[in-house]
Amino acid sequence: EIHIKEPIEKEVHPHLLPGELLLCEASTVYKYMQEDGSNRGTYGKLVCTNFKISFLDDDSASDDNEPQFKNKIVGENDITLQCVDQIYGVYDEKKKLLTGQLRKYPEKLIIYCKDLRVFNFCLRYTKEEEVKRIVSGIVHHSQTPKLLKRLFLFSYASAAPNNTGGRNQTVMFETLEDWREELERTKGNVKYKAVTTNEGYRVSEKLPLYFVVPICISEESILKYEGRGIPIWCWSCHNGAALLKMSAFPKEQDDSTSQMQKAFLDGIYKTISKPPYELLKMDDLSSSLPSLQDIQTAYTRFKQLFLIDNSTDFWATDVKWFSLLESTNWLEIIRRVLKKAIEVAECLEIQHTNVLLIEESATDLCCVISSLVQVMMDSYSRTKSGFQSLIQKEWVIGGHGFLDRCNHLHKSEKEEAPVFLLLLNCVWQLVQQYPPAFEFTETYLTVLSDSLYVPVFSTFFFNSQHQRDTNKSGESLKTQSGPFRFLTVWDWSVQFDTKAQAFLNNPLYAEKPKPDKSQRKTARFKHQRQLSLPLTQAKPSTKRGFFREETDHLIKNILGKRIGKFINSSDEPPNSLREFYDSWHSKPVDYHGLLLPRIDGPEIKVWAQRYLRWIPEAQLHGGGTIATAAKILDLMEEVQSLQVKMDEEHSQAVSGDVHSVPMLRNSARLSSLFPFALLQRQSVKPALPTSTWKDLEDEDDLVKRDDEFVDLSGDML
């Protein structure tokens, strides 16, 4: 049975960006809703452009039900071509992966997205010619290899008005001055220098135009092996110890070449081990961390847990949630990466030792570890502009191959690996463990991960600064000569209005205290630490190994406990590291000093907002972090309005702009899926023919008791 909503009669047209062209369309396409298995849905038009796949129904034409957190570029029924992960066709109730040329066209189309949305379209009522056009068009434009210049990035840059926008104080690291200022900020300019050796890319196309090396390194050394074997500066600690990275020599070399390279490296190490430099510790990340292939395999398994087709699938997999989660190995990889960052922090902070990270290209795991260490040790990197500058420095200018690692051109799956997503997952662990230490929110990180697939910004669509610079110049599509004007993702006003941008800023950020009040401020932080979950194992229930939190609803993100994974002690850190870790955690947190993530077992959690936001069954009605945020924002709004009244009464001018905060009334009506999805209908647990459900029925009292604590809409504050 299909519940039919009458086909739309009024014509709806897609909203096209500058440079966006309509390629194909199909009318009378039926889009299923995902909330239940009842086949409810709506009719509309499915279109494919050179930028996105879009479903248009009669609601698309009206702005009555406008979401508070609306993206101005990508709507809720839009999928950018780079965001398409896999496309399946359904033939006689059997799913088949669609690639290349099609001989037979499906009756249903399922599109899995890289941001974990799932779209189900029924094509039974669509004209055959339109079905052929739309299916082959979508498959061709989203799945087949393409040339770099065919990316929508170039169409948009050539057609959009020349509006450079604001940079939000983000340091872009495109000039020598930017590097010199960063050296000065970190007091690294005594021992390190910014060099211009690579101007015109005469050393290497993989290196940025400008970078920083130890003062004692000569220009001849940099030129000798195209920058390989040269320690490149990342950051300097307050005590003078520095974090460096180096691109290793290829392992397969003939003996004479190997001997020459070894002698060259020995000379470099001797030079930077003498005063004024500290001792040097080398860390080959290719041997101490998982390979890129392992990371890709783990993430591929992990994301399958969240690409849910329907309600029945959700409940079926939920019974095996813990074993499925553990088998992916994704949380273990996050733990290992965080542990490595703690090791590096200990060398810099306690041992006053320089750390040299070594990797084949120094543009993958080097970027992850160096960024994490800076987020942990430098409070500037925990501000919004500081974090954005860090991503520019280590990833965008540092030469991370976004084009290959995200497989934007569909050229080689062998090069694909979610390295940048791994960093965001690790930073999220810190954000949720120490919220007041960060100026940005988890919503900011989620939106940043989504922006990986929006080819309106150049930030995540090149492999190196050289590739970006060479493609920036040249003829634009309108035969106007001159460089393309690419947008940077850091101008958030392109995607969100001021009201929506408020969700990206943390209202409870503990701003850096003034020096004369620092002691009093530090004392106040003691109580904040106690808000974190205790580091204890949940007691297993007698019912088939489920934890007591396994309630009737089986909501996957209740207090984050279900998502924690227990690690046995076989991989314990070395003694000195364990002492450093335990000693730091025994003291009150200074939110502007060193931050160490808690990495024992259940502390490593799934980033619930990013991975569960499209799954109605996993929502907390009137609960989750958003309910807390709603209360806080309401209070802030009240305080601000009172402040304005007081100023008016005293006839004083209001100093500065009053920051606008979103109006979040009736927070109890929100769910934990907000702001990405509106409140969904309560999902009904199906009667699965398993004894597991019967075992859980006895826990009704526990459910009711737990729910009293889960509802955050009441006396939370």
Automatic annotation (TrEMBL):
Protein's UniProt keywords contain Protease: no
Family matches, as CDD domains: PH-GRAM_MTMR12, PTP-MTMR12
GO biological process: phosphatidylinositol dephosphorylation
Annotated compartments: Cytoplasm, Myofibril, Sarcomere; Sarcoplasmic reticulum
Record key words, sorted: Cytoplasm, Sarcoplasmic reticulum
A GO-annotated cellular component: sarcomere
UniProt entry tagged with the keyword Acyltransferase: no
The Myotubularin phosphatase domain, residue ranges: 173-611
Primary localization: cytoplasm
Similarity annotation: Belongs to the protein-tyrosine phosphatase family. Non-receptor class myotubularin subfamily.
Name of the protein: Myotubularin-related protein 12
Lineage: Eukaryota, Metazoa, Chordata, Craniata, Vertebrata
Gene symbol of the encoding locus: Mtmr12
